[in-house]
């Protein structure tokens, strides 16, 4: 009989076998060892071992998800390993010596910009801030405006800026200088920031506007009073002064000059031109000149305060104060017509005004940008006002922006309004004319046209050969001229050393030199002991000739208005050329020209 061997082979069973139980057991053990000596397939294992046990997996509960413990351990391990490797690499990078890549040096325009701004620090009057950064200057003229002791009016006119190489504070060119600086900040604040000069230039502007707010009753809504110098004779009282009498109240008049420049009296009449003294040592009386009909000056000062209010728009209280003062000055300019030099006063010799119509266009435009009040725009763009300002009859100075002629600047400002906001009727007629004229003026500056003469060295004669031609060029100033010299003090290696400037020419040596005692320094042939960094001198003549002589102010005297124009040009050219003009800030106070259209109606439903 044969049976099936469960281990895979034949098994013969013999009934006659008489082996004992022990023998059979021994034989089975031999079969077991033989069978286990070769591998078992899955079926055989299941027969031998029965159902196998499933190995239980372990998990980790992370709160939001449940993951396998094995995956969790591997993930954490990989993260730790990666962090260790990254930290090790960082340590190596930081400790291994390497060559640092330095930022590129600032371009020439940026270098010149920083220096040109320092000139304003050297021109400050009054109690100077600690960070003024001009070592040879100190507090000066701390009694300006206080010479009147009658008790009716005690006026503080300390502060502001000296105009040029003297110690006179001419308000007309100074107001123009502050307006130009504000305009440059409004359009190029990003470039000032990149040059590290934004806070500096804003501080310079504020020093000027703080002083202007002292020169009239900036808290009043209208001013119409004039106070005669030294006698405090009240000629006319404004309504506010009548209803709110106060013996110490300063109300209704306007100062336009501090100091005196008439030298007809010689040294027997010591003043800011006949004496050669450091401002810190001035001990003579400084007269104050006031006016009651000075539309040109008042409108220019209104422009200065209005433009500055946009610069300081983030300082709401101060900006509002500037706007209010500008509105008061504007009303004064419109109500009491006249030119500030018409009386033949001292300023007429140095800064004679030709008209006030251009200041009305210029000032009105800035008043509109500062307030958004369209009545200012209506006046500034009125065809009759444009005609009075010379927009249609030309002239030798047509197209030349200066402290006396603001028409070109106003035309540029209003052209921007037309391009970006397009106000339309009733302004379009004049704005379109200004736009066309601006394009023609810009072309007239190019060498291709013959509107203006040029020297052999390339200096355009926008002022037709008169002194101070450098107000209208740039590269020529910085050394691209026949003399290969810089006309900006402190820029380059070759620049004027005998600048016509009292403070720069007299040493700061704790010796007080009298009115005539400082003349020896004026006439000396040596360089100034103090370098007035950033001062742009008057410049060469019409033949590119220049004499570095301190006694000749037509060559070597700097001015506030000249430096302000230079700063505005330098910041526009400085730094990254991809940084464009700011097109929006100047319109920050201007409301939408047209009403917002109503929302579309809801969709119709049957």
TrEMBL record:
Enzyme class: hydrolase
Reaction equation(s) it catalyzes: Endohydrolysis of (1->4)-beta-D-glucosidic linkages in cellulose, lichenin and cereal beta-D-glucans
Keyword Hydrolase on entry: yes
GO biological process, one term: cellulose catabolic process
Record keyword Transmembrane present: yes
Region (Disordered): 1-24
Active site per database record: 500, 548, 557
Transmembrane domains' residue ranges: 71-93
GO MF assignments: cellulase activity
Domain Glycoside hydrolase family: 109-475
Keywords: Carbohydrate metabolism, Cellulose degradation, Glycosidase, Hydrolase, Membrane, Polysaccharide degradation, Transmembrane, Transmembrane helix
EC number: 3.2.1.4
Family: Belongs to the glycosyl hydrolase 9 (cellulase E) family.
Name listed for the protein in its UniProt record: Endoglucanase
Source species taxonomy: Eukaryota, Viridiplantae, Streptophyta, Embryophyta, Tracheophyta
